Amino acid sequence: MLKRILREPPFRLAGKAIARYFPCSFATKVYWEGLQRPEYAIGMLFAAQEAVLLSLEEILVAEFGVARGSGLLVMQAHAAAILREIGVRVSVVGFDLGTGLPAPVDYRDHPELWKTGDFPMNEEQLRRKLMPHTSLVLGDVAQTVPSFVAQQTVPLGFAAFDVDFYSSTMAALKVLSLPRHQMLPRTPLYFDDVDLPYNHRFAGQLLALDDFNRESPDVKVDVWHGIASKCAFSDSRWIRKMYMAHDLTAPPTQRKRVAVM
C-alpha cells in the first residue's frame, strides 16, 4: 500500500527523498529515482546485472559529450556503488573534443541551434576529480572511437550520447559497429537530444539512429521496451530517451539464474 501511495503525484517527492537519503540498495534507489542522473543509474544497473548473468567480472560504460563533466562524475559514483553492492567492476570513459562543439557540417547538425565552441571543458579541473577507474579521451570522436575500440578489452555495458550533432553521433555510434567492438548482447543507451520540439527524423540524433540501423547489419538500436515497469514513475521524461542496442550475432550463453531488476 505504501509503495503504491508513494508512486502517486502528490507523494512522488517523498518517495524520491526517502530513496535518496535513507539506507537502501542501489537497485531500490534506481527504482525510486533516488539517484542523480537516473537515466545513467538504470542503464548501468541493467548492464551490471547482465554482467552477473554472463559471469563477467568487468564492463565498460561511456559518455559521449562530457562538457563540464557533471555527468561523468555521476557515472563514476554509480560505478563505485555497483562494485560495492553487485561486485562488478565498471570502467568509466568520457569522450569529448575538449574545446566545445566543432563546426557543424551541414543542416543535419542543427546549425540553427548550436555553434562552434558551445559546451567547453575545463580539463584540468575535471581531471582532478576523476577516480582511477575513470578515463577521459579527448579529440574528434571520428578518430578517438576507432582507436579506443581497437584496444578495448572489456564489453561496453552502457553508453550515454550527448554530442548534439548528427555527424558526431554517427561517429560515436561506431563504438557498436567497428570490427573489434565488444558489447553486451543487450546494451542500454541514452540519447539526450531526442524529445524536444526541434527534433525530427531528418537531422540530429534521430536521423543518426535511423542511419545507424540501416547501415549496421549485426547491431540494431531500438527503444528500450519494458523499461517503464522497472521505474516507479513511468511517465518520467528521461524514460523516453532510453534505447537498447541488440547484438544480433551474440552467441548462445549459459546464463546464471539470478534475480534482475
- What is the element string, with H for helices and E for strands? HHHHEHEHEHEHEHEE
CATH topology: Rossmann fold
Which residues form runs of ≥5 with pLDDT under 50?
none
CATH superfamily: Vaccinia Virus protein VP39
Count every beta strand, where a strand is a DSSP E run of 2 or more residues.
7
Judged by helices, strands and strand pairing, the structural class is alpha/beta
> What general outline do the C-alpha atoms trace?
globular
Largest sheet: 7 strands, mixed
Level-1 CATH class name: Alpha Beta
CATH architecture: 3-Layer(aba) Sandwich
N-to-C terminal Cα separation, in Å?
21 Å
Strand order of the largest sheet: 3-2-1-4-5-7-6
Measured as a percent range, the helix fraction is 25-40%
Number of helices, counting only DSSP H or I runs of 4 residues or more? 9
Structure notes:
The model has no long low-confidence stretch (mean pLDDT 91). This protein has a single domain, classed as Rossmann fold, CATH 3.40.50. It is of the alpha/beta class and 261 residues long. A 7-stranded mixed beta sheet has the order 3-2-1-4-5-7-6, with helices on both faces. It has 9 helices and 7 strands, in the order ααααβαβαβαβαβαββ.
SSE layout and pairing:
Blueprint: H1 2-6, H2 12-21, H3 26-31, H4 38-53, E1 58-64, H5 70-86, E2 89-96, H6 123-127, E3 134-138, H7 141-150, E4 156-161, H8 166-173, E5 186-191, H9 204-215, E6 219-223, E7 242-247
Parallel strand pairs: 1-2, 1-4, 2-3, 4-5
Antiparallel strand pairs: 5-7, 6-7
Helix pairs in contact: 4-5, 8-9
